[in-house]
Amino acid sequence: ANGYYGAGVLSQSAYEYFRNRPVGTIDNLQLNLCYMDSKADYDFASGVRCKDLPSGGKWVYYTMNLEKVSHLTLNSTGAMAEVWIASDGTPSVNLGSELCQMGVVGSASGIICKMVSYSFQETKTLTTSLDFRMVIDTTLLGFSPSSSDVKYSGDGASWTNFGSTSTYNKVFKPSGEYINVFLSTAIYKKSQKS
């Protein structure tokens, strides 16, 4: 059947190829298109190429330059293993913890953990419309936390509520190392009750 729209899709092996390419490299790809007459029936699986059809098809190609401008690697730190919860829901941190510490964000006290370590390389700004958001499985948690209960930060200074989005370049920086997550004392007490 003939269609009106077309879309290109990259295979898993193509994603792996680009993942392993260094930031700043440029790959040239040729995109082949076959425009068909509405009455033509082209069976691409037969092995006949569009450009070799005697009639009904018009073959065009475009050369595309794909530049890898950034690469982000995320790794879990396992920071929650350093947090202890008392029977009344009060959290504490192992003495000498390198990943978590007691802290205050806004007016709420709780624990700040370096939850995810990352490496970010960038040769130019990718886009300003790529958003980052923290998601919580509220079904598993048993309740929906308030916005002051959970926050995330790329620098440990400016915080975003877990339900809100932030552009990627406000969270990930080439000089950064961690995504910090703040969990209020209140969320631990609420989770103890649920």
Automatic annotation (TrEMBL):
This is Fimbrial protein. It comes from Klebsiella pneumoniae.
